[in-house]
Amino acid sequence: MQVLAEGAAALAGFGEAAVSVRQGDFLEVVATYGDGTSAMIGTQISLDVLQGELDKSEQWGVLHFVPGERVGDEMLAYSHIAHHEVPDAPDAWDPLDLLISPLLDDAGEIRGLLAVDSPVNGLRPGAAQQAALTSYAGVARTQVLLALEREELQTSVRLSAEVREVVRAALGEDSLDKVVEASRTVVAECFDAVGMWLSAFDPGGGAASAWWSHYGYELPMLDELDELAVRLAHLFWERQEVVQLTREQPDHPGLAPADVALVSEFLDRMRLGSALFVPLGAGPECLGYLALTRVVGMAAWSEMERAAALDIAHDLGRAIANARQLEQQRGLVDRLRELDRYRTELMNTVAHELRSPLASVSGYLELIEEEDLSVDVRRSVEAATRGAGRLEAVVEDLLAVAHVSDPDAEFDPVPVDLREVIAAVVDECCHVASTRSIALSIDDATDALVVQGQAEDLHRLFANLVSNAVKYSHEDSSVRVVLSRHEQDAVVEVVDQGLGISEEDQHQLFKEFFRSNNPEARSRPGTGLGLVIVDRLVRRHAGVLSLTSALGHGTTVTVRLPAAS
């Protein structure tokens, strides 16, 4: 740009020249040539002021000349006034004369400005000088447009990279508060904003919000703007539009005069020049809004920044939608846990309330059995005793399920020798197995098989498995308990040759109170809680439970527990 300024002065015979480029709604001097002109760099003038000068100028092709007596004060403040002797000639150059060439893009928009001053001969330019300056204005236009394209490309690349950082930071968060926190400073810095307000709507009608300010302003009181901001967010998301709000612009799309007054008062109170209002959403749903702010004197929001902001609106909207879904899922999980806790407490309470009356019933039945009873009465008492026994088993299983399902139940593991546990379980089940001619055996090839756990829980676990295997086995068959060690795991397999389990039933085995649809299996008493207890005890001991079975061909249940070192 410096070369352009020097070339314009040298080729057209002027002592001073300046090149300005457009920054939003302003033109800013970026290069100058001539004594004392360097102080002009960075000076800005609005497009409206420039247009006023063009409207009263004499047009010489692409050049516009305004005699000194007609140049406005704002334009003079933007210019460098050279002090030199004015020759005594009709066409003498007045120090206040203005000669400029707007540099237009293909759409006719002003993108830059070439200005010259202080002709070397002291005269207003003649035809030759005008031709030279016109030719050079074409070169200046090309160079300014190329420079602006390069700058826009660099800005686009920067914004794209920073937008990706925003998205990467926000998409990984699992709550609205964390999305807001991860996004706030990155978004503001990405758009060269001095402040930012980010609000993410939650499904209940509230919002998670965050404010960030480069100047450390306290959190602004936005109560009076909250309803307006929510309404605008929905309106502009439906339009897929990003809107610049300023104090100087009296008319804003979608805003009533009273709303405009609220926005203007807020911007003035916060000493802000403009705000970029960005609705956030995913699909058709508006999920929040983002407001980026700049102070008076900063550049207006460019079309490229608005486009990048709309991209962020979609990406942040997706992050908010993900976080909302995760929060809803967490809420559902919490409610399910609460329900499960309530169910556990209910089962515990019911079982305890049944336990005492059942103990009384069983006690009285035992006393009655000692009396001299008729055959029919004794048969009835025995039936009642069996029913009370089954009910007691249900109560014990309910208490066991409540205990192993309680997440707050104390679990203090100690070293437990599984060989001793299995031996005790097999001893307990041998009598029942022998009455049905079932061979119950232990196949143990280990020297020691120790795990970390609670001996009572492990005993219940394997007692349920072995008793189940015996209960559902055919007479004159066998049940084997196989102990082994595989890498870092202690492995116990309970293998029977019994009824087997259909593939359909296998999918529901570990549901509470499930009983098989197999008539032969249903004819054998059970609560439908034994395998539920087994499954939860295995998980409580950080183990893995698996089952293989085929209807009519027996079942193998395998328990793998971490072996103690």
UniProtKB/TrEMBL annotation:
Q: Which InterPro entries does the record cross-reference, listed alphabetically?
A: BphY/WalK/GraS-like, GAF-like_dom_sf, HATPase_C_sf, HATPase_dom, His_kinase_dom, HisK_dim/P_dom, HisK_dim/P_sf, Sig_transdc_His_kin-like_C
An example Gene Ontology molecular-function term: protein kinase activator activity
Q: Name the enzyme group at the top EC level.
A: transferase
Q: Give every Histidine kinase domain span.
A: 349-565
GO CC annotation: what is one? plasma membrane
Q: Does the keyword DNA-binding apply?
A: no
Q: Know the name of this protein?
A: Sensor-like histidine kinase SenX3
Organism this protein belongs to:
Nocardioides currus
